[in-house]
Design goal:
Elements: E1 6-11, H1 19-32, E2 37-42, H2 44-48, H3 57-71, E3 79-82, H4 88-97, H5 102-107, H6 109-117, H7 124-127, H8 129-139, E4 144-147, H9 152-168, E5 178-181, H10 210-218, H11 239-247, H12 250-261, H13 267-293, H14 296-325
Parallel strand pairs: 1-2, 2-3, 4-5
Helix pairs in contact: 3-13, 4-8, 4-14, 8-9, 10-13, 11-13
This protein binds iron/sulfur cluster.
Length: about 325
């Protein structure tokens, strides 16, 4: 069956993936493969904008690729590759920089956030981040970019940049990408307060063993008003219940909803039930991951094959771009 177009998405190499990555992105990446030609990229150059050390970069790339493949990214259908291995992206970044107003870049809320987070490392790469992201998207002639709502300004920027480029050079060689705003649930960490994140150490890694997973789940913060087992709880403000809604059966969700409120179930048993269901859900992923991890070279080969396939598209785009500009 003909696919509907090409999807592009990238993520920084953050190593082993967690439940927040899974629910927010990976699950969606896997599903999109049925309808689109998908290009998924480990954006290692983007990572450099804020990274203080690159010691873990290679290993984090490997671990993330391993998790993506184990979760169902199919390298036969999709292109999975490393951003810096296709040098045309930096070339296109330079060309697009010439049609990217600096004031617009420094006005983006995401840039202001980064300045707040990294006040001592405000580099040119950080300002140009959306330009590099635009180069990523348009280099592969992507029709659609799945993003969370926080990335919306970047895609708007990409669309404007494409229009500026095409207008300035009187061409239509670059494709304006459409945005697919995905319902990314805000996945809270084990603290029940902040977004799940490795840096906050409130995450549940997908690749943990079932025992380790249960141990982490037992540390999850629940309804703070439920001090004793006999205190009734409120599942509506409990992150464990939010997770049940994703991983448990409708009957179990209904049971927890009722029993928590009348102290019929304790938090320990409630968490054990969630751990059991999460472990069951992740069992095929873990099995495949263990299998893939036996042959690390194959993971690098898969990425290399992705590089080669991505480069073919990139070379074609760049020759069209250069011809449109009239570069000698
Ligand atoms: S019983 Fe479950 S839903 Fe209720 S507060 Fe405890 S962990 Fe949360």
């Amino acid at each position: 069956m003909a696919k509907k177009g090409r999807v592009f998405s990238g993520a920084r190499p953050t190593g082993r993936q967690h439940l927040g990555n899974y629910l927010g992105a990976i699950r969606n990446y896997v599903a999109l493969q049925a309808d689109y030609d998908c290009v998924y990229c480990v954006v290692d150059l983007h990572a450099l904008t804020t990274m203080e050390t690159t010691l873990e970069l290679k290993n984090n790339t490997y671990e993330m690729a391993l998790d993506w493949l184990a979760a169902g990214i199919d390298p036969k259908q999709s292109i999975l590759f490393i951003q810096s291995h296709v040098h045309q992206v930096t070339e296109l970044f330079t060309i697009l920089s010439m049609v990217s107003p600096l004031g617009k870049l420094t006005d983006l809320p995401t840039f202001k956030d980064k300045v707040r987070e990294n006040p001592h490392n405000i580099n040119l790469g950080l300002v140009g981040y959306p330009v590099l992201m635009t180069a990523d998207i348009v280099l592969y002639k992507s029709d659609l970019v799945p993003v969370g709502i926080d990335q919306q300004p970047h895609i708007e920027f990409a669309r404007e940049t494409v229009r500026s480029f095409n207008f300035r050079y009187n061409t239509n060689v670059l494709i304006e990408p459409a945005m697919k705003v995905t319902e990314v649930p805000k996945v809270l960490g084990t603290d029940g307060q902040q977004k799940m994140s490795k840096s906050l150490n409130n995450h549940i890694e997908l690749a943990l063993t079932p025992e380790e997973t249960q141990k982490v789940i037992m540390t999850m913060v629940t309804d703070p008003a439920r001090v004793r087992r006999s205190d009734p709880g409120n599942p509506d403000i409990c992150n464990v219940f939010s997770m049940h809604k994703v991983f448990s059966s409708p009957e179990e969700i209904a049971m927890v909803d009722v029993e928590c409120r009348r102290a019929g179930i304790g938090c320990v048993d409630c968490k054990k039930l969630f751990a059991k269901n999460l472990n069951a859900h992740l069992a095929p992923f873990r099995e495949k991951r263990a299998e893939l991890a036996k042959r690390p070279d194959d993971i690098w080969d898969t990425l290399q094959d992705g590089d080669t396939r991505a480069r073919v598209i990139a070379e074609q785009t760049m020759s069209e771009v250069k011809a449109a500009i009239g570069l000698p």
